[in-house]
Design a protein that fits this description.
This protein is of the alpha+beta class and 251 residues long. It contains five helices and twelve strands. The chain has one domain. It is 23% helix and 22% strand. Strands 3, 4, 5, 8, 9, 10, 11 and 12 form an eight-stranded mixed sheet that branches. A four-stranded mixed sheet has the order 1-2-7-6, with helices on both faces.
Length: 251
Amino acid sequence: MTNQRGPADEVFSFIGTEAIGCRFATIFARQRQRSAWLVTTCHELEEVVGLTESALGGFSREAALLVFPGRRSSVDAVHLINVLCGAERWHWERVLAPPGEPQRGLMVGLRYRIPTDDYTSYVLGLAPFEPMPATRRAPHLAVAIRFAGPHPNCPRDTGEPVHLCDMHIDVTKEQFDRVWDQSEQLRSAAVGDRSWGAKAAVSFVLPPEMEADLVAPAGEYQPVGPSWRSGRSGCASSVSSSASTTPRIES
């Protein structure tokens, strides 16, 4: 038995620092609420599909953190995306910068359709390569996936996106909003004008030429403008590839 920290601990510790630019994630990691998480190491990229299915067994976990030790390149990320999108309930969409803002790299939105709840989970991608934003540069390639519906303080209609900010946290609506605002400030300080690559809708930011190596996207997603929060729902506005307007959270 050893007390050495493994790759999963290293990534979980990164999530627990303000470097990730999300106060929600920092709270979950620092409180070590691992009972709500499946935290595991995958030595082969192909393992990830089976692990996400096992995590759903009995729906006992809120989220999974799957870490790929030693995998650190954009090539590894492309391989992982292709493996996942070859499985049921997975797809990716091309995320476009808001009108008037520069497109910095290929922004990949990896999506997982939750089978027992009619929501789509925005998958958080982590990896230490360019052009990933600083807030996502964990020491190993990893993905974090939300398996349950929205937080009560930020309700959405069936079919709308969920992500890690929906993890259970026992706070009032006012406290929830305060943590949200702190996250916005942290992210802006960390990544500045590259902030859209660090949004919940974006899983990975890849070199643009790597799109040729990816399976075809399911569509495109373009936010209407800078992130904003309504006083009622906390959801931001976007335009899908069909040009309809859908409220989405952009944490």
